Amino acid sequence: MASAKPDVTPQQIAVDLRAVLARLLRKLREATTDAITPSQASALSRLSKGGVSTVSALAHAERVRPQSMAAIVEALEALGYVTRSQDPTDGRRQIVELTDEGWAHVAGQKEAGLAWLDETLATQVSEAELITLAAATAVLERILD
Length: 145
Prior knowledge:
By secondary structure, this protein is an alpha+beta fold.
């Protein structure tokens, strides 16, 4: 009996890739011993890439209501991960910035996720599969640039 040829259309690869990447991101998040919510972690990650932001800009970037982001920022502030201050040019806006503790938290989460991925690749993936992953990573880098 002949084996069925896998569906390798761009549309099917897009669907499969999106699902696999979502699962990979979830696994990377699970690898951490984080007590914060995924929404809080996402806001911290975004702040670590952009430096400072406003609550409204974070809400827009994260696709949540400004009121929801205000609650997320308030929780992060209570944990000591961010500070809020008034925008000197517009008193209605609040500037949100990572604290040293917030920067350390983000770095620790990245390290934990990378440690999990490194261990998983080292113990569950063959050398040939590593070569395939390296090639796939290069293709992803190229299409993202």
